[in-house]
Specification:
Layout: E1 5-6, E2 12-13, H1 20-24, H2 33-39, H3 62-71, H4 91-105, E3 116-119, H5 122-133, E4 139-144, H6 149-155, E5 161-166, E6 168-171, E7 177-180, H7 183-195, E8 200-206, H8 218-230, E9 234-238, E10 269-274, H9 275-278, E11 287-291, H10 294-303, H11 311-322, H12 324-352, E12 357-358, E13 367-368
Parallel strand pairs: 4-5, 4-8, 8-9, 9-10
Antiparallel strand pairs: 1-2, 3-11, 6-7, 10-11, 12-13
Helix pairs in contact: 4-11, 5-6, 5-10
GO biological process, one term: amino acid metabolic process
GO molecular function: pyridoxal phosphate binding; transaminase activity
InterPro entries: Aminotransferase_I/II_large (IPR004839), Ethylene_sulfur-biosynth (IPR050478), PyrdxlP-dep_Trfase (IPR015424), PyrdxlP-dep_Trfase_major (IPR015421), PyrdxlP-dep_Trfase_small (IPR015422)
């Protein structure tokens, strides 16, 4: 029996069946177009270069951030940084991160450092969680539109698929768009999927929203959690834009951590955050997730060695997260002010062109309706 597999171009491929579809599909954005934008950027001198409108990466505060990091005398390494370490995060870094979370996310209870897992970016978090809580061919539910990389993060290695639940979008008399998560639509989508023989394991919520640039209504979020607990589903709350809220909006942001005491089954909740968005630092590859499910934590500590963050990066991150005075008085005011200023520039043009949009107040997004353009 011939076991050799061939690609469409005729090349022999003796790789796993898991990667057949991945190799034959178009190159993923981050592997192709991001690099093209970096290698051939647009400028006044190179007008045929590329402008990247597809990556949620902010450089608005790179000047003050690099200046701050350069103040850290990190070349004086402690010998312990040259040795193997706790792959789920050094004790010191997890303790500092727990204090940071308690200060800025206002949880309803103390954050135990033993319930934190530090990994190399949110992609690593989603990849690991998909591997732990779902089998190949099972599903995560996501309110759409959503950050498209999530679907790749959970599928590329763990073969977990996503079910899209549309947001309820309405257009007001003045053309302004509003969007919300409707728990009834989640229930309907869940029931339809179950009737088709699909197994759903989790719901993913990004709040503040990428790509809407808004904060989701607290009552809607709590209804989603109650529904998930009723169906014995995990809810993964991605709050990577929580500290990038630059003005008041229709709804006030309230971290899901501030409602922990409201839920009888806290083990259903998984919370994550990272440096890439709120701290304009995608290069450090530092994210953290919080869970009280001891089985998830046990397996994460077992499997995280392939996605761990080097001690040097943890050391630098710890220095940033513990300097609350600099964060409160320098970094956050500057970042939020810059986000607000750029948002107002975009809104001015959208209003001038009479293009409907959802008024944003967080992150680096504006949700626009180009249907009539």
């Amino acid at each position: 029996m011939n076991t050799n597999r061939l690609l469409n171009d005729g090349n022999r491929m003796d790789l796993s069946k898991r990667v057949v579809n991945l190799l034959e599909k178009d190159e993923e954005f981050l592997c192709k177009w991001l690099h093209k934008c970096q290698d051939e950027p647009w400028s006044l001198e190179t007008s045929n270069g590329y402008v990247n409108l597809g990556t949620a990466e902010s450089s608005l505060c790179h000047d003050i951030l690099t200046a701050k990091i350069n103040e850290i005398d990190f070349f004086k390494l402690d010998p312990s940084m040259l040795r193997y370490f706790k792959f789920h995060g050094t004790q010191s870094c997890r303790e500092s991160t727990s204090k940071f979370v308690e200060k800025y996310f206002k949880p309803s209870e103390k954050i135990d450092p033993e319930n934190l897992i530090i990994l190399a970016g949110s992609t690593a978090v989603f990849d690991l969680l998909a591997h732990i809580i779902a089998d190949p061919g099972e599903y995560f539910m996501c309110a759409t539109p959503y950050y498209s990389r999530i679907a790749d993060d959970v599928y590329e290695r763990s073969l977990v698929r996503t079910i899209h639940v549309p947001l309820e979008v309405n257009e007001g008399i003045n053309g302004e768009l509003t969007a919300r998560m409707n728990v009834q639509w989640f229930e309907e989508s869940y029931n339809e999927s179950i009737s088709q023989g699909k197994t759903i394991r989790a719901i993913v919520v990004v709040n503040p929203s990428n790509p809407l640039g808004i904060v989701h209504c607290k009552d809607d979020l709590l209804s989603i959690v109650e529904f998930a607990i009723r169906k014995n589903l995990y809810v993964i709350f991605d709050e990577v834009y929580a500290l990038s809220i630059y003005r008041d909006g229709k709804d006030e942001f309230c971290s899901i951590l501030s409602h922990l005491n409201s839920f009888p089954q806290q083990s259903n909740l998984i919370w994550l955050w990272g440096l890439s968005k709120d701290l304009c630092n995608a290069g450090f590859r530092f994210s953290v997730f919080y869970s009280k499910d001891q089985n998830i934590l046990k397996m994460a500590k077992t499997l995280c060695f392939s996605g761990c963050v080097p001690p040097v990066i943890q050391h630098l991150t710890e220095k940033l997260l513990t300097d609350h005075e600099w964060l409160d008085n320098v970094y956050f005011p500057r970042n939020r002010g810059a986000l607000r200023k750029n948002c107002e520039i975009v809104e001015e043009w959208l209003n001038k062109l009479k293009i409907p949009y959802c008024t944003p107040n967080s992150g680096m997004f504006v949700f626009v309706n180009f249907a009539e353009v």
